[in-house]
Amino acid sequence: MSELPPYWLRDNCPCAECRDPRNGQKLFQINDLPDELTIAAGTELDGNLEVLWSDGHRSRYPLEWLTAERDGDGRTEADKRLWVAADFRRGVPEADWETYLGDPAEQAAVLAAVRRSGFAVLRGVPALERQVLRVAESFGYVRVTNYGELFDVRVEPDPNNLAFTSAAIAPHTDNPYRDPVPTLQLLHCLENSATGGDSGLVDGFRAAAILRAESPADFAVLTRTPVPFVFRDRRTELRADRPLIEVDGLGRIREVRFNNRSIGTLRGSAEELTAFYAAYRRFAAITLRPELQLAFRLDRGDCLVFDNTRLLHARTAFRQDGGRHLQGCYADLDSLASTLTVLHRRTAALDAIAELFAGEGAGEYLGEAVTMAEHMLQAAAAAEAAGAPEHLVAAALLHDVGHFHGALHGRDLMEGQDNRHSDTGADWLAQWFGPEVTEPVRLHVAAKRYLCAVEPGYRERLSEASEYTLAVQGGPMDDRQAAAFAELPGAADAVAVRRWDEQAKVAGAATPGFDHFRPLLAALMN
Q: Is the pLDDT of residue 228 over 80?
């Protein structure tokens, strides 16, 4: 502990006084911390480091977090799979569009492929105008440029870019003259019946790594020489001065800009220019090595998503003996990375809930003839059979999850102490679900007390265990309490969940397993 810099440690204090618990943002400025800050005392306890600071503040850090390796934003070569064409001899990363839309795991796999390998292909995307925008919006936001929110890649009578001709296009990145450059590009094939016009990709990070290995001096030249990239037409004038290969502060490859058509006039001494062009030519030759060039054909309904800061894309020439029409748009990696992280977070949450059903859920349910998991699955099945909206099916499934998280997992309740499991469960679920799910969970105990007060014969239908817990939880409401409950926004939903709760105590009843409800839960998560 003595080796940890005090200001680093205090700056990363995770407590609610130091960080907003909703978003993790810090609630203090670095200069708010006192001068000569020191650790007054530190103790390791239950897998955590507990620190008392010289100013009286207390912090608690998981030891696993303290010993974690340096991480990054996933944008450098350190977090990529650098490849050559032969690595995809069995096929490129791909997925069916409808499966991608309906299965969070499939969507996560596609986005992870884009992030790690630089690209993926979605098959079966409807060959409709503007559909490429829907693909981009499935994980992020469209970047609007001077080409508009989307652009058509087809032969134009008066093209302002060679992409809008039938000529071959050498490996390149798009929009290097823009700062910031669009970090993702999408190309959706609406038609491709022409002879030729095959697509190609080159891993620019792999090419740059080869240059670094074969000629470190040339690599250094291309990382330190700002190159003027320029685009102009009748309505637009764009310029960005950036190196062909950009590295981060640790020297790791982070971005490649490579577009011969867009390089303007580089100025400098004869020595600088000679060194640059030698390095530029060497790098260009590497990008054209056959083993680096992955060739494939986009057919109708295929949509290619790729990293425009890493992959160079190309096209063979084609004859105008058939139609070739792609629609493209730009997007950005930060949104894709955000969506992927959220998908992983949701997967982890669903895994945690599933483990509760499989583990503690196998235990007895408050003296009833079913286990806790059987009870909740029966409640969800009843809601589903009744045609309830998805948020109520989820609430019925999760209504007793608070029993898993009480200090004694619900045994207090059967020993005469209210464990307030409805509040505990709702608060825990609020990490991932909105009030349409959490409030029926929070109110389902109150709903039993309400129904016992206002519905003749309801109380007589309670099981022996439910009658016992009713008394522990406060008994039937009085008239004033019942009237107040009925006015609550979630009261009607809570009553519905309560009725399914009472039905869900049948020994041996057949129900779907937790995995049946998993897609529904995933769709409702924040």
A: yes
Domain span including residue 370: 363-524
Same domain? For 54 and 152 the reply is no
Taking residues 415-444, report their average pLDDT.
Answer: 84
Locate 199 and state its tokens.
């697509």
Q: Kindly report the CATH number assigned to the domain that includes residue 462.
A: 1.10.3210.10
Same domain, 60 and 208: no
Place of tokens 């992983």: 344
3-state class of 380 per DSSP? helix
Confirm whether 354 is domain-assigned.
Answer: no
Handedness of CA 450, 454, 459, 462 (dihedral sign): negative
Report d(CA 246, CA 49) in Å as an integer.
Answer: 39
CATH number of the domain enclosing 152: 3.60.130.10
At 374, which amino acid appears?
E
CA–CA dist 172, 183 (Å, integer): 13
For residues 256 and 287, the answer to whether their CB atoms sit within 8 Å is no
Same-domain status, 206 and 273 = yes
Element (H, E) at 254: strand 253-256
Strand 293-296's sheet: what is its strand order? 169-172, 311-315, 199-203, 293-296
Closest CA to 227 of 271, 182, 169, 276: 276
Element (H, E) at 70: none
Residue 504 lies in a domain: yes
Instruction: Record the tokens describing residue 385, joined without a space.
Output: 């059979």
- Give the tokens for residue 517: 């409800």
How many Cα neighbours within 13 Å face the side chain of 281? 6
Round to whole Å and give the CA distance between 227 and 284. Answer: 15
**What is the pTM (predicted TM-score) of this model?**
0.81
For residues 166 and 290, membership in a common domain is answered with yes
How crowded is residue 495: how many other Cβ atoms within 10 Å of its Cβ? 21
Q: Output the CA torsion 371→374→379→383 (10° steps).
A: 180
For residue 268, tell me if it sits in a domain. yes
Are both 175 and 28 inside the same structural domain? no
How many domains, in total, are found in the chain?
3
CA 82 to chain centre: 22
pLDDT exceeds 90 at position 23: no
CA distance 519 to 350: 10
Q: What confidence tier does 137 reach under pLDDT thresholds 50, 70, 90?
A: very high
CA pair distance 239, 520, nearest whole angstrom: 48
Residues in the chain: 526
The average confidence (pLDDT) of the chain is 92
How many other C-beta atoms are found inside a 10 Å radius of the C-beta of residue 497? Answer: 28
- Pair 18, 143 in one domain: no
The DSSP secondary structure of 394-426, one letter per residue, reads HHHHHTTGGGGTSTTTTHHHHTT----HHHHHH
Give the CATH number for residue 22.
Answer: 3.30.2020.30
| 123 and 201 both lie in a single domain | yes
> In this predicted structure, what is the pLDDT of residue 406?
43
**H-run or E-run covering 153:** strand 151-153
Closest by Cα among 354, 379, 352 to 365: 379
Strand positions, DSSP E, 198-252: 199-203, 227-232, 237-242, 245-247
